[in-house]
Write a structure and sequence with these properties.
Largest sheet: 8 strands, mixed
CATH architecture of the largest domain: 3-Layer(aba) Sandwich
Order of helices and strands: HHHHHEHEHEHEHEHEHEEHHHHHHHHHHH
Structural class: alpha/beta
Mean pLDDT: 77
Low-confidence stretches: 355-367, 433-465
CATH topology of the largest domain: Rossmann fold
CATH superfamily of the largest domain: P-loop containing nucleotide triphosphate hydrolases
Strand order of the largest sheet: 3-2-4-1-5-6-7-8
Distance between the termini: 22 Å
Number of helices: 22
């Protein structure tokens, strides 16, 4: 995500960081590099011009030119202006006091509108809501079936009247159904088009008038760059959208759409799609996104993902087992499986901040072999329950049997056992008898000291920033 832009901005910042004192000429040279970086990232020209002007005006002030560390001051200014450019603060979904809250999903074909209707419904279901999906795309072949499959996977009901009924009537009847059955959120999946046309907009306006949505969310493909801004502007002019869902952001190395949409349309990005899985959707936080772009990581999102993935009871049980030296290969496997729930290893690595003495590009470009986790699972699952509980039983013949059963080699089995023992010993030493300190691997929680939750950690982190 944004790798190309991040790399180019890092190069531009070297101009500032390499000098003890900055002159206006130094700032002008650095701003030229930042301008080129943004243009190459496919950021709208008007956005770039205004952004560079604001940063330049602040950077030539005495607070920067006379600072002991002017390079850091410039990075701070760029960070603050990036946050402002993307909306300043998180824009949350409007939830009406009197249900149902109607969310109207709009967008062009191929942007992921139907999938993200399901993702959003799934996200709010986890928060205790009773969502209903509504199939109003009667034109695209199998669109209704796609939504029904999504509903089945997420265990969310889908309201459909087939493809012979007007979308406006379907939407109207869906609201009646939601009121009757007590659904408090309704996600209306409307028809998309290959391009914006008058017929499409007339239909969407009719649905809007009929259901009075609390939100009209435009789904936009981040990978089409500046074209996404054009699409957003057109939909906003016709429908007065309330927000944007930026999809396929995991494949967008440039970042032009994320940095341009709010400035051009005045409407915030509310959610981002970060992968194909149905839980790969995140609320959009401008400050966190700016932090990722500048190579500072995104620790808060990482903590939130860990909180969602790890069960407190399981973590407490694991801490007890580590303390009593009854940690088994079953427990070890369970930790790997919970880490997988957080997302791909590549995405998790991208949220880690740059560390002193570590080459950020090498970290970012490191090839993470996620198949290694699959091999670990296969090896452990090829053992008997008794072998998983007592690895010391694994002699040469047993290891050979396990290797054959898991499609690996005896060397792989030995490597896993060594790794397991190292983690086991490390956690025993790290804990020092205090289970509250067993956070690095046990339950995936950060080592935070006694009785401090991840929520408190987030508040403290925000205050520091």
């Amino acid at each position: 995500m944004f790798q190309s832009l991040s790399d180019k901005l890092a190069s531009a910042f070297k101009i500032f960081k390499s000098k003890g004192k900055l002159t206006e000429s130094d700032i002008k040279e650095g701003m030229r590099e930042i301008k080129l970086a943004l243009l190459e990232a496919d950021v709208n020209f008007k956005v770039v011009k205004d952004f560079v002007k604001k940063v330049s005006e602040r950077a030539v002030g005495t607070a920067v030119l006379e600072s002991l560390n002017p390079g850091q001051q410039v990075v701070k200014i760029v960070n603050e202006e990036l946050i402002a450019l993307m909306g300043g603060s998180q824009s949350k979904l409007t939830i009406r006091a009197n249900p149902p809250t109607v969310i109207m999903m709009v967008g062009l074909q191929g942007a992921g509108k139907t999938t993200h209707a399901g993702k959003l419904a799934g996200m709010y279901k986890k928060q205790g809501k009773r969502p209903l999906l509504v199939a109003c795309d009667v034109y695209r072949p199998a669109a209704i079936k796609q939504l029904e499959i999504l509903g089945e996977k997420l265990d969310i009901p889908v309201f459909s009247m087939g493809d012979k009924v007007s979308p406006v009537k379907i939407a109207k009847e869906a609201i009646k159904h939601a009121n009757l059955k007590g659904y408090d959120m309704v996600f209306v999946d409307t028809a998309g088009r290959l391009h914006i046309d008058e017929e499409l907009m007339d239909e969407l306006q009719s649905i809007k008038k009929e259901v009075d949505p609390a939100e009209i969310l435009l789904t936009v493909d981040a990978m089409i760059g500046q074209d996404s801004v054009t699409v957003a502007q057109a939909f906003n002019d016709q429908l007065d959208i309330t927000g944007v869902i930026l999809t396929k952001l995991d494949g967008d190395t440039r970042g032009g759409a994320a940095l341009s949409i709010k400035y051009i349309t005045g409407k915030p990005i509310k959610f981002i799609g970060t992968g194909e899985k149905l839980d790969m959707i995140e609320p959009f936080h401008p400050d966190r996104m700016a932090s990722r772009i500048l190579g500072m990581g995104d620790v808060l999102t990482l903590i939130e993902k860990a909180e969602q993935a790890f069960d407190e009871k399981q973590a407490a049980e694991l801490e007890r087992k580590l303390r009593e030296s009854t940690f088994t290969l079953d427990d070890y496997l369970d930790q790997f499986q919970q880490i997988k729930k957080m997302g791909s290893i590549d995405q998790l690595m991208a949220m880690m901040p740059n560390m002193p003495g570590v080459n950020a590009n090498q970290m970012r470009n490191a090839q993470i072999d996620e198949r290694a986790i699959g091999r670990t699972e296969a090896i452990i699952l090829s053992m008997t329950p008794r072998e998983r509980a007592k690895p010391e039983l694994l002699n040469a013949s047993r290891k050979k049997r396990i290797a054959m059963g898991s499609g690996t080699t005896v060397e792989d089995v030995n490597a896993l056992l060594r790794q397991f023992e190292q983690v086991h010993q490390l956690m025993k030493r790290f804990a020092g008898g205090d289970p509250s300190k067993m956070g690095a691997f046990a339950g995936g929680r950060m080592p935070m000291g006694k009785d401090r939750s991840a929520t408190k950690k987030k508040k403290k982190f925000k205050k520091k920033r």
